[in-house]
Amino acid sequence: MDTRSRKFRLMNPFKHYEVSGGRDGSSKSGSSWPMRYSISPPDSAKFTPKIHKMSPPPKKKLAIKCCVLFLIVLFTRWACPSSGVPLSLHQLMLQSESCQGRRVHMYDIPPSFNTALLQFCEGGLVHWIKFCKHYQNHGFGERVMASASMFRDDWYRTDAYMLEVIFFERMKSYQCLTDSPVNADIFYVPFFAGLDALPYLYNESMRLQQQGLELLDWLRQNATESWRRYGGQDHFMIAGRTAWDFAHPEEGGKDWGTSLFDLDAMKHVTFMVLERRPWRPNEQAIPYPVGFHPSSSASLELWIHRVRDTKRTALFSFSGALRPGQVGSIRDQLSQQCANASTKCSRLDCATIKCSHNPEPIYDSLLQADFCLQPRGDTATRRSTIDSIVSGCIPVLFHKDTAETQYTWHLPSDLDTYSVFIPEDCVMNGTCIVKDSLKQITPAQVRKMREKLISMIPNVLYRYPSGTDFAQTVTDAFDLAIEGMRQKVDSLKASQ
């Protein structure tokens, strides 16, 4: 052995120690556990204290030894905490204050209740319903290949019915997701209720069958303790349809609905839907997914900058098709008032221009106007209300169930600071002229209301799941849905 090797051997602190590592076999696939290290002397090693007279080592050698010893101590403290079990970064996050009350356990239910349904996207559930393009890209759909540069990055042809897929994909990367039901505060059942409902709604042979019974059997057999702990009150599901699609067929005198929400065992579960029935406390509306899904803070800020700086030439805008056969619809009157207002109104007729899965013409129209009319459609809510917020176009509402009774977790309660309300019957009987009502609002008030809308934009968007540079203070629709559920469960536990 040469002189250099002998010197290194004298300095090597690991000569009589072994480092071993192992992976916790109990961890689930996909979880990442750090190596467990132990430092132990071999059996043959003996420690005999001796006193040596030696001259102080050179400064360079002393500095190297100090650094090595410091690193050993630091490494040992990290790898071998007082509990004896190494903690991963994810476990440390779960124990942090930011996850308190927000730890979610996502049940590992059979794929037949969720992802396997996507295999039938080419008419396999209902022969004329095809959605293969819509569930791509985490449920956002195909990317927009628009001519305008503002719609090229982070814009998709999103279908609102993919809400349950979007939520499921985002949950997989949620920082407070826990594998342990014991440590969970909230329980997420990743049932694709809207897709599963299609055969029950449109297939006559299944109309009399009950949706959800097989799922309940699975929960009772595999999640007995957590399911019974609060009677399902700390559980939630996502349904990418309105609550009316899951109501009892006889409710409202209509032969429609799967009765999923009316099952006795489901009466305490929170269902997050596109539209709720306001008198049902276990239903909660969350925003329709629109075409913009920012992948970074820079993307979000760029869009907000465009919204704030866009020059708006029209007083108000009306986007949508007419409902000539719908009783109580005011769309015909609003369309006529828009025509009478001439250049003061920007009109987008979705009967002549394809608006579905095409955000470019919709936002071109919304960005032209200060106010955007949001009458009821087939139901009280419409995705255009969320589009209006994202575009900074002040929504003009005509019914309280369009927003006020719906998005209580996502929108501020002081609606008059960012929206205008005109009663439906006032428009129907010709008493209210929209243009005259909106002209009474001063430019200063318009600017203030728009700034309020701009501050709300992140709250109604579903950002790209892999986006990592968003500030802690930036919360999107997913985050607020979890926060709303946290508050609901906290109130439940406080009342016990």
Distance between the termini: 74 Å
Which regions have little confidence, pLDDT < 50, spanning 5+ residues?
1-59, 72-85
Give a count of the beta strands, DSSP E runs of length 2 or more.
Answer: 12
Radius of gyration: 30 Å
How would you sum up the major sheet? Answer: 5 strands, parallel
* Structural class by secondary-structure content: alpha/beta
Q: In which range does the helix fraction lie?
A: 25-40%
Number of helices: 15
Q: Helix and strand string, N-terminal first?
A: HEEHHEHEHHHEEEHEHEHEHEEHHHH
Strand content: 5-15%
Overall shape: globular
Order of strands, main sheet, comes to 3-4-5-6-7
Mean pLDDT: 83
Question: How would you describe this structure to a colleague?
Answer:
- With 496 residues, this protein is an alpha/beta fold.
- 31% of the residues lie in helices and 9% in strands.
- It is built from 15 helices and 12 strands.
- It has helices spanning 3-11, 59-79, 89-95, 163-171, 193-202, 213-222, 224-229, 297-309, 331-340, 359-366, 383-390, 424-428, 434-439, 443-456, 477-495, and strands at 18-20, 38-40, 104-106, 186-188, 235-238, 270-273, 283-285, 314-319, 345-348, 369-374, 394-397, 420-421.
- A 5-stranded parallel sheet has the order 3-4-5-6-7.
- Strand 10, helix 11 (383-390) and strand 11 form a beta-alpha-beta unit.
- It is globular.
- Residues 1-59 and 72-85 have low confidence and may be disordered.
